[in-house]
Design goal:
The protein is built from one helix and five strands. It starts with a strand and ends in a 5-residue tail after the last strand. The chain has a five-stranded mixed β-sheet, with no helix packed on it. With 65 residues, it is mainly beta. Helices cover 11% and strands 32% of the residues.
């Protein structure tokens, strides 16, 4: 399927949920995910289906002072 991920088109295969997409990208840090304009709670990642043409923004949280 083809997604718009952080503003760029990307082909992904074998993923059906936001959680599976995050795992396939190898992301293990604290993140915030926006799916088609809606910010998702972490608890919803495993239940939120993704479809061809969806737009996602994944932002890494950075700490510091």
């Amino acid at each position: 399927m083809r997604l718009k991920l952080n503003g760029k088109h990307r082909d992904v295969h074998g993923v059906a949920t936001v959680e599976e997409l995050i795992a396939s990208l190898g992301i293990h840090r604290m993140i915030v995910v926006e799916h088609n304009g809606e910010i998702l709670s972490r608890e919803s990642y495993s239940e939120r289906p993704i479809q061809d043409g969806d737009a996602l923004e994944i932002v890494h949280m950075v700490g510091g002072g």
